[in-house]
Structures are given as C-alpha cells and as structure tokens.
Amino acid sequence: MAKKKSKTTKASKPKIKKPNFKLSSQQKLVLGSLLLILGILMCIAFISFFFTGEADQSSLSNFTSRETETKNWLSKSGAWLSDLFIQRGFGVASFIFSGLLFISGVYVLMDIAKAKLRQHWFWSILIIIWLSVLFGFFGSKNDILGGTIGFEINDFLQDYIGKIGTSLLLLFGLITYLAIRFKVTFQSITKLFKSAKKDINDEFSQANEEFSVPLDNNLSEEAEAIKTAFDIPLKDKTQTISEKKSEPKAETPLEVKVAEEEEDIEIKIEKNAEEQSETDNLANKLVEDFGQFDPTLELSNYQFPPLELLKKYDTEGITINQAELEENKNKIVETLSNYKIGIASIKATIGPTVTLYEIVPEAGIRISKIKNLEDDIALSLSALGIRIIAPIPGKGTIGIEVPNKNSTIVSMRSVIASKKFQTSEMQLPIALGKTISNETFVVDLAKMPHLLMAGATGQGKSVGLNAVLTSLLYKKHPAEVKFILVDPKKVELTLFNKIERHYLAKLPDSEEAIITDNTKVINTLNSLCIEMDNRYELLKNALCRNIAEYNVKFKARKLNPNDGHQFLPYIVLVVDEFADLIMTAGKEVETPIARLAQLARAIGIHLIIATQRPSVNVITGIIKANFPARIAFRVTSKIDSRTILDGSGADQLIGRGDMLYTSGNDITRIQCAFVDTPEVEKITEYIGSQKAYPDAYQLPEYFGEESGTSLDIDISDRDKLFKDAAIVIVTAQQGSASLLQRKLKLGYNRAGRIIDQLEAAGIVGPFEGSKARQVLIPDLAALDQHIENESL
Ligand SMILES: Nc1ncnc2c1ncn2[C@@H]1O[C@H](COP(=O)(O)OP(=O)(O)OP(=O)(O)O)[C@@H](O)[C@H]1O
C-alpha cells in the first residue's frame, strides 16, 4: 500500500507560528464602540471649533496647564485636536476623518470585510488632500477652509504652475478620481447629458400637449386670446406633437423612428461579479488572514549558493584570431572551388569551441553536392569535428562548423550569472552552456519533459549531468525540487550525499539516498510509479491538469491538507549509466521507466537518463519515443549518432563538452558549461551546512514480489496503539497508513508497522498498490468480537 510520506504532516504544520491578529467578539465590541465614540467626539470638537476656535487660539500655547480655560465643547483636548486637524492640517476636509473613525467602528462592530475598510481609508485620505487644496485655492484668505496643508500646497503649486495650472491640476485630480472610483467614462457622461436633454424635451412637449388639447377643441375666450397671441408657435408645436402622436400609426415614419432610436440605443453591459463558491470564500479568508501558503517556510532562512563558489576561468571570453579565420576561409573557398562550387558570400560566427562559416553558394549549385564534400573539406582543413549543415534551418545559407584551434571553456559561473538564466521564469531552468553564437542556452526541463544523454566515455556526460543539477540548485528552493540519483558507477554523484536532507528523495528505510544498487533501482522506479499514481489522484481530486496549476491552487489555500493535499515538489530522476542498468535488470527497469516517461510529465516527475552506449538494445524504441529532448556528446560511430539523434553529427564532435541538443526538430550545437568536481563539492557543502529537513523526501513504500511482509507477527509484539489504530481504520473503513499518521499523530514508520500488524490480525487486507487496503471488519462491534476471539 502506498503509504503517505511523513512530509504530509510536516507540510500541514508549519513550525513558525504567525502572530494572530484576530479579535474575539468581545474585543471587537470594545474596539468598535471606542472608534465610534472617538469619531463622534472628533466631530463635536470640529463643529465647536467654528464657534470657539478663535477664542481658544491664545490658550493653545498653554495647553498643558490645568488652569488654562478653553471654550471648545470638548475643552482642551477638543481645542487642541481641532486646531491640529483643521487649522494646521486639512481645514474643513478634516471632518472626513471623524467620519472615517465612525465607519471603522461600524465595520469592526459588524465584522465586515477589512479590505473594503482599507479602500475607504485610502480614497478618503486622497479626497481630504484634494479638498484641502481646493479650499486652499478658493479660500486662500480664510485658512480654516483649506488648513495649513491646503494653503502650503497651493502656494507651492502656484509658484510653479500658476493659478491656471493649479486649477487644471485640481480638475484632473477630480476626473481621475471619478474615473477610477466610479468607473466614469466619457461615453457615460455624454449619455447622461443626452438622457437629461431627452427628459427635458419630453417634459416640455408633455406640457405643450396638455395645453394644446383645450386650445384645439373647445376654445374658451381666454384660450382664444392666448391662441391669438401665440398663434404661430403654439400651432406649430401642436402640429408637431400631433404629428408625433400619429407617427406610430403611420408606417413609414415609424420605421424611420425605430431606425433613429436604434442608433441611439447603447448596450449597457453589466458585469456580474463571478459567483464564489463556498471553498473560494474560505480560501480567500484564509489567504487574507494568513497570506498565501509558503512552501519554503520550513526552511525560510535557506540561502541559495552564491556565485563565488563557482570558478572563474582565465581562458574565458572569445578571442578572435584573425589569421586563423582568414586561413580557414581561404581553405573553404579553395576546396569548394576545386569542386567547381562558387561562393557568393561567406560570413563567420565565432563560438567558444567552433566557428561557423555561413556560405551563400552561387546560384544553381546543388546543396547535396556540398553536403557530400564534408570529408573532403575536413581533410583540406585538416581538422577534426567539421560539421556541415546544409541548409541552416530558417536561413538560406549553408553552415560549415570548424573547431577553433584554441577553444575556450564555458564556465558554469558565466552561464549561471547570465541574465537569461537569472531572469528566466521557467519551472525547471537548466543552463546547458553556450551556443555557437556565444549565447547562453537555457532550457526548461519541465517542458522537455525528459532528457536522454549519450556520449562515449570521457566526452563530458558527467560534467553535463553536474551542470544540469547545479543549474537547478542555483534556482530552486529545496521545497520545490527533489532529486533521485542513480549512480551505478558509485563515484560520479556521491558528492550530492551532502544535500540528502535538502534535495534528495529516497525510499523509506533505505540508508543511502544515492542509489548504487540495481535491485534498489527497481524498487525506486516502482515507488516512483506509485508516487505518480498518488499525484494523479490528488490532481484529479483538485480538478487540476498539471502540477503547476495544482501548486498554485494549494498555495492559494483552496486545497485542504486534511484531504491529503500537500505542496508537490518537482521530482527529477537522474540515471547515470543507463546501459548498465538495462544489461542487469532489463525489462524490470524498462517497464517503469517507460511508464514514467509516458505519463509523468503532468505531475512533475522528470527523467534524465545518461548512457555511454546509445545502442538500440539500450535505448529501445519505447524509451526513444518518450524522450524527445536529447543531448549527444561525441560518440564513436555514425550508427550511435543515428540512435541518439536520428541523424549523423554526434560522431563529428570534438569532445570535452562539445554537444548537440535537440528537442525534436532542429539540432543546436552547444558547448556544455564546465563545472568541476571541487566546485560541486563547494556547492553541496554550502547547502549541506545549512538547516535541513529532518529527513530526505520520502517516496511511497514499494514491496517487491520477493519482499513480502511476514504476517506472523506475535500478538505480544503489537504496538501499544494497535487497538486505537484498529478502531480508526474500522470506523473510517479505509486501510491507509496516512490516515493513521493523521489521526494518531504517528510517524510514517510506526504507522506502516501498525498496518502490517493489522494485516496479520486479519483486520485489513493485503497491499494493493496505490489503492487503500480493504478493511475486513465491517463495524466496531465486529472488531471487539474479533479481538476477543483472538486473545482466547
Ligand atoms: N564542458 C566541458 N568543458 C571543458 N572540458 C570538459 C567539459 N566536459 C568535460 N570536459 C573534460 O572532459 C573530461 C571528462 O569528462 P566527464 O567526466 O564528464 O566524461 P564522461 O563522459 O562522464 O566519462 P565517463 O562516461 O567515463 O564517466 C573532464 O574531466 C574534463 O576535463
């Protein structure tokens, strides 16, 4: 049975407690009423200031003395407060402060969302400043209106932009406020004007209509007199009205009118706030109270390794050897002309190890002709590692890559320090090295999603693997990524032992985190498959399509840890010497690897497999099909190159980190970044010396066929919590160790042992892969009976 990792409980219980600012209901009552009263008192003091302010002016200087008399209705404090806010502050606009205090009191008392209150404060303070400047502008004689602040701001503004500028600035402030706060737009204003105009017109015509009825029918003498006086206009209007009234009956005008009205009608789109589900509300509240979930919290003081740990090389930086360039160019032109191939133009791009000569052949030359001359050109240039790219994809040229006489080392430091890597937003960024045009080459392992690496011995595979791991160590927090390292050679990856409790994942109860034994590899791969199934289950329950979405949702506290949800780190499985593994374990390794390669991309498990022998019995069709991203260091034969790259080229490389990278389509030549063993040692030591998790990341337990559990556990050896555990399991009708871990607060191993004892006692069924075990006892009464029978 897939037992849950002990991390489940760790993740849900962050050790550092956040200060809790939540108020009890009583505290809310006290604070709310205090704010209400303060608001009212402030308002009283301010009103009183208008009557008593002048009289109190003199007493303010002696404010602290008890003898001093003030007229303010709130005595000394009132006089002082209103002088501070109105006279020396914002003038009349200060009344808004009292309003704000009052509203805050109401909010606290009624426990209304704090976010709204914050908004009120923000906008009100802006209004206060705007009003004080406005009053300062118009009432510069009376400093109570705008207060000292309003006066001073006005003074300042008028010195620089004059009266007109200040008034326009005020107008701009008003427009900005209305636009942002009330979503006022130019269209809505014009519409308002239009409808107002229409209303006035309607009212006016209605009034006329009322008049026109008696005028047209029984004309009294008075009316007759009025009619005579206003004959023309009244008649006109009556006519228009009666025309208008008859319009709906007449067909043509009706059509016209409808058309006119249609033009006027604007569609008002009302944006409905999206309905929030109950969980959303709860999540929002949790996020508001505690902030987003931070997976790095447990190691919040973790420091990423500094750049200084990586070595700087003197031979870095490309030096242009003009004579060499000229010589190579001449040789290329000469060789091609020997075969009657004319060149229209030639251009050189100097990379760290090779220089690319881009040739535009003369019209009418067949590309295949140049391609066939690869060996001849290599011979005439007397250089190893010439590669001809005909044509260069995306360009109308032919490329000839010629190794430089003095190659430069691409240091890990330079690629890690590059802007491209530092600012990359990728999920698992890897700085592989530099391209031929000397650009740092950064790829996302999460997108690859698995990587196959091949190369003959001594060509730079181990350095390449170290470069991949170093990139991830420089970019990802221990909470975000975990490595499973398989190293049959037992020497290449041992340095990473030091970061076991930070970055490595291992099987429970295994001593070494770095796997060197082939049988353990099989267990680990199968365990990884269980982890994959578990993760898919979590994703399914969370309605997420991939790990990134899932983690975002978990961070937003929309997933409940009590339902088994937890922050999921990426898992990167690195296998050095895959050929050795396939030779010794064959199908047993191939099947889980193929399964993982096919399915694991969405749930954040990525595989990096390196092999010396890229032959077809090692890199089988099924593996190849699922590893679109491949790196080829120098290989010894064209056939090997074909196996790994589906094309030649890798046999033409010059070694020492010279490699070809493909992610399915085009092939890029890259000089792999060089990271030496002492550098890796320094980095792992730096990380290893910091506070770590109590243990390496625990993978689910996997029991191989031969490693069945012994079921004859002695009753007297049972755990003290055996009975409690049985009750938990029978009540929940779910035979899972993680349930025991949660309910009884047990460690992973102990919960696992108890489950074994429950199986031996016939309470739960046998291990069923990723599913929970079956519970064989239906209820608590049957459990009591069962245990009693057992002890007889
Ligand atoms: N990117 C590089 N830049 C410069 N030199 C390199 C680079 N990569 C490897 N080398 C040189 O090649 C040597 C062998 O590299 P590496 O140990 O990575 O080979 P390998 O392919 O892992 O060999 P094996 O399969 O035998 O372990 C290194 O010690 C180093 O001197």
TrEMBL record:
It is a multi-pass membrane protein. GO terms for cellular component: plasma membrane. It is found in: Cell membrane. ATP binds at G455, A456, T457, G458, Q459, G460, K461, S462. One of its GO terms (biological process) is chromosome segregation. SMART domains: Ftsk_gamma. GO terms for molecular function: ATP binding; DNA binding. InterPro entries: FtsK/SpoIIIE/SftA, FtsK_4TM, FtsK_alpha, FtsK_dom, Ftsk_gamma, P-loop_NTPase, WH-like_DNA-bd_sf, WH_DNA-bd_sf. Belongs to the FtsK/SpoIIIE/SftA family. PANTHER family: DNA TRANSLOCASE FTSK, SPORULATION PROTEIN RELATED. This is DNA translocase FtsK. It comes from Wocania arenilitoris. The lineage of its organism: Bacteria, Pseudomonadati, Bacteroidota, Flavobacteriia, Flavobacteriales.
